[in-house]
Write a structure and sequence with these properties.
This protein is an alpha+beta fold. The chain has 8 helices and 7 strands, in the order ααααββββαβααββα. Strand 6 and strand 7 form a beta hairpin. The chain is globular and about 55 Å long.
Length: 204
């Protein structure tokens, strides 16, 4: 897969692009929380400005009830960013949603590349659970299963989803999650909350 600009033949690092998008979403959500609760203006949606804004508010964030969520999210994003930055070691291709029951992860085809050696056989991995993976010889069966599965009901919502669907600022989302003890899980550095808890607290 190559980029469509003038740098023809340059490989597009899909994993890095996905991590960058996750970083932007997480930083913007926390900047929104700070802006709402402190009554200040949030910076423009730009990674450098958002990161600087959060850094300036670290003393206030350290005393917030949801501070542990921020630490968890940033730690995960740092790990994913380091992994994605080494474009020589892996090639990653998005495949789709995980087919395992109750899993909200995303499937990616991974090809390991070692300089001076033949690429190792590809495999498909889940972003949420390391136990969910398929060898190259299982791809046909996996593809057939993905075709037959239909997602009739969403189980988990991200902060960005909740902002759009319920028209709630990100700052209020973290506060409500802490107040009502919504079930949560992390996927690719982002926090997701259980739909059942959301509907119970916020209605449909």
């Amino acid at each position: 897969m190559t980029s469509s600009n003038s740098h023809q033949g340059m490989p597009f690092n899909t994993a890095a692009a996905e991590v960058r998008s996750s970083i932007m979403t997480v930083l913007a959500s926390w900047a929104g929380l700070i802006a709402e609760e402190r009554g200040v203006e949030a910076p423009q949606r730009h990674i450098v400005g958002l990161a600087r804004f959060l850094h300036e508010n670290v003393p206030w964030l350290s005393g917030h009830s949801a501070a542990h969520d921020l630490i968890d999210e940033l730690t995960t994003l740092m790990r994913l960013a380091r992994r994605a930055s080494d474009s020589r070691s892996v090639r990653v291709i998005p495949v789709g949603s995980c087919v395992r029951a109750g899993c909200t992860g995303r499937l990616r085809a991974v090809v390991k590349v070692v300089p001076g050696a033949q690429p190792k056989p590809s495999e498909i991995r889940c972003s949420a659970d390391r136990a969910h993976w398929w060898a190259a010889g299982e791809w046909a069966a996996l593809s057939a299963r993905m075709q037959t599965l239909r997602d009739h009901r969403r189980t988990w919502y991200s902060v960005a989803d909740i902002e759009v669907l319920w028209k709630i600022p990100s700052g209020s989302i973290y506060r409500l999650a802490s107040q009502y003890q919504w079930r949560r899980r992390k996927v690719s550095g982002r926090v997701f909350y259980h739909a059942e808890d959301l509907h119970s607290a916020l209605g449909s």
